[in-house]
């Protein structure tokens, strides 16, 4: 299905971060001015906003376009409001132990599913690539690459359970531990959406 220019811009800003109008134009195959007109229209709808950032040296500030909170809400959120409300009610009525039980059960089921698709006998880059594909199917808009030092990076540009994780940080701790177990590797979270980052990013190294 052909995507609209607005949807393509939303995805670009979500996956690659803030962009200059010229860069948006390059991706869409249109002029900078046409891209700026599209971005201005989206700004009027509350989906994006321009932020002036100082250029290197003495050049005039450059205008980067960012997603707004409303723009971020255009992506799947896993029924965020309902999830957060249910978790808050569970804690108040049943105690934190009940939520911990739910998190533990989810971790067990997730680990079972991931292990059925990821072959631990494969090399680490293959395992990371497989995990990224699984996470993308689940709505995390994942990507991966290998840095010059040999370590691997897994990034998730979207978190469809962000509201749940905000209500209970145990979900984030559980996912980190799941990654370590399913990859059989050392995994450290370097960027975290809940701490204000644009995305979650993980540094992965072989334990051997």
Summary keywords:
alpha+beta, 208 residues, four-stranded antiparallel sheet
- How many β strands by DSSP? 7
Shape: globular
In N-to-C order, the SSE pattern is: HEHHEEHHHHEEHHEE
Main sheet overview: 4 strands, antiparallel
CA radius of gyration is 20 Å
Count of individual helical segments: 9
Give the terminus-to-terminus CA distance.
44 Å
Q: Provide mean pLDDT, rounded.
A: 86
Strand order of the largest sheet: 4-5-7-6
Q: What proportion of the residues form beta strands (DSSP E)?
A: 15-25%
What portion of residues is helical?
40-55%
Structural class: alpha+beta
Describe the overall structure:
- The protein is an alpha+beta fold and 208 residues long.
- It is 52% helix and 18% strand.
- It has nine helices and seven strands.
- It has helices at 5-16, 21-28, 32-44, 69-72, 80-94, 96-117, 124-137, 162-167, 170-183; strands at 19-20, 48-53, 62-67, 142-146, 152-156, 185-191, 200-206.
- The strands form two sheets. Strands 4-5-7-6 form a four-stranded antiparallel beta sheet, covered by helices on one side.
- It is globular.
- The mean pLDDT is 86.
Concise summary:
The chain is α+β, with helices and mostly antiparallel strands and 208 residues long. Helices cover 52% and strands 18% of the residues.
Note the topology.
Layout: H1 5-16, E1 19-20, H2 21-28, H3 32-44, E2 48-53, E3 62-67, H4 69-72, H5 80-94, H6 96-117, H7 124-137, E4 142-146, E5 152-156, H8 162-167, H9 170-183, E6 185-191, E7 200-206
Antiparallel strand pairs: 1-3, 2-3, 4-5, 5-7, 6-7
Helix pairs in contact: 2-3, 5-6, 6-9
């Amino acid at each position: 299905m052909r995507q609209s220019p607005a949807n393509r811009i939303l995805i670009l800003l979500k996956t690659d971060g803030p962009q200059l109008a010229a860069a948006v134009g390059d991706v869409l195959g249109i002029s900078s001015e046409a891209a700026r007109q599209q971005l201005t229209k989206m700004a009027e709808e509350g989906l994006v906003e321009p932020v002036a950032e100082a250029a290197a040296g003495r050049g005039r500030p450059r205008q980067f376009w960012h997603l707004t909170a409303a723009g971020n809400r255009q992506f799947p959120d896993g029924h965020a409001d309902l999830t957060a409300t249910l978790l808050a009610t569970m804690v108040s009525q049943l105690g934190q132990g009940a939520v911990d039980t739910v998190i533990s059960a989810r971790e067990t089921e997730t680990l079972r599913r991931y292990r059925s698709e990821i072959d631990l006998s494969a090399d680490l880059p293959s395992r990371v690539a497989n995990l990224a594909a699984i996470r993308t199917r689940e709505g995390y808009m994942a990507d991966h690459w290998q840095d010059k030092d040999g370590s691997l990076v897994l990034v998730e540009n979207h978190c469809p359970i962000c509201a749940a994780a905000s209500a209970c940080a145990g979900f984030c701790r559980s996912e980190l531990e799941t990654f370590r177990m399913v990859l059989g590797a050392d995994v450290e979270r370097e960027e975290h959406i809940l701490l204000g980052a644009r995305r979650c990013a993980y540094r992965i190294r072989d334990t051997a």
